[in-house]
Amino acid sequence: MARMVGQVNAQRYAELVAEARNLVGVVSRAQFRIGECALEIEPLRPTGGAHPGPGEQLFSVAESLAQFADDIGLSVRTVEKHRTVAARWPEEHRREGVSYEVHRVLSAIEVDKDRWAMIKRPPLDERTGTRRWTADAAKRLVGWQVGRPKTVQEKVEAIHDLASSDEVAAVVTTDFLRRPEVASRTMADTTARHAVNRAQVDHSRQAAHVVRQRTPELRRLEHTAGFMELVGACTAFVATIGRAVPASRGQRFTEDEAATVHKGAARVRAAVDWLESAVDTGNTSLDQGLAKLLRGE
């Protein structure tokens, strides 16, 4: 069975490609010629521009190109693009059989001699096995985003471009994380894992705040639970000390052991002072010194 490309066989496809390449050549020459016309009207000049002669009225570059664009039915941006490309590619350095689009992309190479030399060295096209320029090959060379991503990095850049807004990125990320393998690899990244954990905590706090606002009874229950937890902590500490101290009767502690117990007692005193202050004033914040002491630093 003959190989088909779209709805045509390979022979017809080759005929259409040949015809289209001729048309691309015609269009490329026309685009370069428009750029040359714009350059004749407004040559590229060093900073400072042109100076009018006696009795002459000097249009600004923008005004001249805008009038030219309007008179030929193109946008100013298109005319400016053609002008820049024509300036970067004098006729003797243009490559026959290479599209205007490739010349435009390679215009990003700043140094003239490098740019003119590069177009003479087309890369290998893996699909056809020949050396030729394509728009994507040129974009790949200058670091632009390609139209048909091939490598992992190119595909990632394309996704980033499409998901530039937070709204789209959130939907895409949610869809991807439903894949077990994707979720597993994502959680292996420390930064991503911490970001997800922070988001979960923030989400829980926000949800809890909404519930508290809608359910006043819950706030009273939380208040009671907090009170009971503090009383329970005090009771548990006293009970533990009540058992531990008598049990140590007759024991001799080393200097290091005694120092450790004294350090723990200092932390207990600091915690009790903090507790009493919070109960009396409602201020539960910690200063830096107290926070370090409670952490045992």
From TrEMBL:
Pfam families: DUF6192. It comes from the Bacteria. This is RacO protein.
